[in-house]
Write a structure and sequence with these properties.
Blueprint: H1 3-11, H2 22-34, E1 38-43, E2 50-56, E3 64-69, E4 88-90, E5 93-95, H3 99-118, E6 125-130, H4 140-145, H5 147-150, E7 156-159, E8 170-171, E9 173-182, H6 197-215, E10 230-238, E11 248-257, H7 263-275, E12 283-292, E13 295-296, H8 302-311, H9 325-330, E14 335-337, E15 352-354, H10 355-371
Parallel strand pairs: 3-6, 3-7, 7-14
Antiparallel strand pairs: 1-2, 2-6, 4-5, 5-15, 8-13, 9-11, 9-12, 10-11
Amino acid sequence: MQAIEILERLIGFPSVVGTPNGEIVAWIRHYLQSHGAIVTELPGPEGDRSNLFATIGPKETPGYILSGHMDVVPAAEGGWTSDPFRLRAEADRLYGRGATDMKGFLAAVLAAVPVLAETPLRRPIHLAFSYDEEAGCRGVPHMIARLPEFCATPLGAIIGEPSGMRAIRAHKGKAAARLTVKGWSGHSSRPDQGLNAIHAITDVLACARAEAERLTRGPFEHVFEPPYSSLQVGTLKGGQAVNIIPDTCEAEFEARAISGVDPITLLAPLRAAAEALSPLGFQVEWHELSAYPALSLAADAPLAALLGELTGLELLAAVSYGTEAGLFQRAGIDAIICGPGDIGRAHKPDEFILAGELLACQAMIEALGRRCA
């Protein structure tokens, strides 16, 4: 199958983040097995979605991982000019949800599989396809934890997020959390008989603003824009009517961390401020939504040199968005980002990838196979 034909199949599966993905997993598994790959389906704790790990070549020898996620963001926003889960081709543009982020990479990988399967590989090429990346990289940690069961420690992992086929060495880490504060409702004319949850949560909001300001003063890592860690309040919900004491208020916080900083620690002062509300009679619930570490691959790393040779393009030092790459690096596997498409097209109506970008990615993967032969 050609890459465009495979992309059409993949986009046809509405594998929206947080939903069952059995259909796309089954199709990819069958395709890989038909070409002789060793495939393992790894169900997650949710019970209705799975990761896939496959190997082509000698698994007992260190090789390379090609990593991508099978889930996509929802496509309920207005502005689509065609069915987002049906590939539409116009000239060189291929439209559909996930075309760039990141089913285009998956299609290029799968299109290269027949060539890889016929190549006498001395080093294996592994495929690591995950679920729920768009929810904060929730699926891939379960797969990474089990890699020692399936292969020798890899020499590196290539995460195919859209990068214009320029390899990227670094990104920030991220953590997100939801805070729910519950008080007592009542008539607004008797504030002495209630507990105003919105008033209470302002202490945590003030803490968040102060921490965000403090982070602008460093430490710094100048490959990033901005060159410091950051923190924000992303959502705020509470109250029923202006004359009712609000008994519940909910806020979501996000922190993005430069390398060497655990993003969870950036949210710690907010959590402490929230827990200080409990002695005042409020019920406080803090729920971690997601967390993944930063990526920082040395400029002289063998994996960086390899990707420069395979793509023929100058590497980028860093990007602001996050990926699963930091999780592979934390597990002791060098990781780098390199994939087709443009991140600026992702998460938008009429998301698209160029046919030429798919072919360039497939050529890079086949060149990797020749290097492993």
